[in-house]
Amino acid sequence: MAFVNDNFLNIPETYLFSEIARKVNTYKEENPSANIIRLGIGDVTRPLAPAVIKALHAAVDEMGDANTFRGYGPEQGYAFLRETIVAKDYTARGIDIAPDEVFVSDGAKSDTGNFGDILGPNNVIAVTDPVYPVYVDTNAMAGRAGKPTADGKWEKIVYLPCTKENNFIPELPETRPDVIYLCYPNNPTGTTLKKNELKQWVDYARANDVLILFDAAYEAFISEPDVPHSIYEIEGAREVAVEFRSFSKTAGFTGLRCGYTVVPKTVLVNSAEHGRVPLNRLWNRRQTTKFNGTAYIVQRAAEAIYSAEGQQQIKETIATYMNNAGIIRKGVEAKGLSAFGGVNAPYIWLKTPDGISSWQFFDRLLNEMNVVGTPGVGFGPHGEGYFRLTAFGSPAQTEEAMQRIANWKL
Ligand code: MLT
Fold first, then answer.
1. How remote is the CA of residue 42 from the centroid of ligand 1, in Å?
2. Which residues 6+ apart lie within 8 Å of 152 measured at CB?
3. Known binder of ligand: residue 15?
């Protein structure tokens, strides 16, 4: 009989958001009449923009006509989308990225998770703590994390704590890792790095020959001018950084699935046998072998986001979510709790009252107020004592949730 990849037996049996869904479903079965408001997983609730729907319909019609039907597309994405991405997300910001450095995919979760395929098994990985669990779990699956430790960490992972004490700005690592994951605006804390702060990381990576995997899935929510939308706004980032982008939160594509990854040809990493090699070539090889591209109709839908009407429509939706974020933050603060984020990101990160752990807060909020959030400790040990609420609910549900929290006897 075959052997399993034992690394899978080291990771928690369920993924964080699956575990939360399981708990909520159990509660719902036991309390069928409960009116539960879900501000847990960062899943959008507003429908797709009309410009996107129009593009989808048109693309579906093309697929039904022998003259315009498309079969397999380029694994890296159609040129029409890659060129639009480059023009609107990079050239328009004065950033030098070429279409063959852009790889369209079914989302940033897959890409951040899959990227480890092209990295060696002995790389030392650094993550901020708390952190989006995909980075840690996928490295654990690949054996790069070692074994779990009693304090909720992994023996080989370098953790960079982000707490209110350091204003959620991680310090540069004391020992040099090979790879650093950064996500800004940050999931889960909703906080940001300003341009001069991100520059320190790029400078560090260049000086120490470190690869930065930069997740910019939430860049569309930035409202402050000194917060970079792309790591390539920082000089030298083209040498050391890969950037992940997603249309999930930007344009409500969580169910449609589309994102992209930028791998500049100038990012060179070490090979034991071949010296310095470009990651772009390896990612291209990985994608062409394991991925057959994102659906044509979805890529046309993504292209439509960049039209003038598409831009206006998605901006309205983002404004609605950020209005929710303001309501949540105000409500949390009115309750006497410290709240962070919610200004350049759709997440509010709150400090639970002394003596109430993340999971206790989760259970009580669900049981007593029928509101779902995400326990901070699910994102890493330094998330203990924190809790995340998302701004992706409807305005009415968000108001209602905050009303319930206002009445809550904590
Ligand atoms: C979250 O809630 O952190 C996100 O929805 C997760 C994701 O984008 O996969």
1. 5
2. 377, 380, 381
3. yes
The b/e string for 257-275 (b: 16+ C-beta within 10 A; e otherwise) is: bbbbbbbbebbbbeeeeee
Distance CA 343, CA 340 (A): 9
Residue of the CA atom closest to atom 1 of ligand 1: 42
> What is the pLDDT at residue 294?
97
Which domains, ranges and CATH numbers included, belong to the chain? 6-47+311-406 (3.90.1150.10), 53-308 (3.40.640.10)
Q: Identify the residue whose tokens are 């917060």.
A: 227
pLDDT at 12: 83
On the question of pLDDT at 16 being above 90, the answer is no
Give distance in angstroms: CA of 305 to centre of ligand 1.
21
The predicted-structure confidence for 329-367, as pLDDT tens digits, reads as follows: 999 999 999 999 999 999 999 999 999 999 999 999 999
pTM of the predicted protein model: 0.97
pLDDT in tens, 271-318: 999 999 999 999 999 999 999 999 999 999 999 999 999 999 999 999
Q: Is the CB of 345 under 6 A from ligand 1?
A: no
Residues 6+ apart with CB under 8 A from 39: 328, 371, 372, 373, 389, 390, 391, 392, 393, 397, 398, 401
Whether 46 has a binding-site annotation, put simply, is: no
HSE, CB side, 13 Å, CA atoms: give it for residue 60.
Answer: 6
Separation CA 336–CA 334 (nearest Å): 5
Rounded to whole angstroms, the Cα distance separating 397 from 382 reads 29
Position 410 confidence tier, pLDDT thresholds 50, 70, 90: confident
Select from 120, 143, 125, 121 the least CA-distant residue to 135. Answer: 125
Pick the closest to residue 106 from 297, 295, 300 (CA basis). Answer: 295
Q: Please give the average per-residue pLDDT across 236-253, as a whole number.
A: 98
Q: ipTM of the assembly?
A: 0.92
335 annotated binding-site participant: no
The burial of 83, by beta-carbon neighbours within 10 Å (0-12 exposed, 13-18 middle, 19 or more buried), is given as: middle
Pocket test for ligand 1, best of 19, 24, 138, 187 (most atoms within 8 A of CB): 187
How far is the C-alpha of 403 from the C-alpha of 387, rounded, in Å?
18
C-beta of residue 82 within 8 angstroms of C-beta of residue 102:
yes
Upper half-sphere CA count for residue 176 (Cβ side, 13 Å): 9
Atom in ligand 1 nearest the alpha carbon of residue 43: 5
Tokens of 137: 């779990």
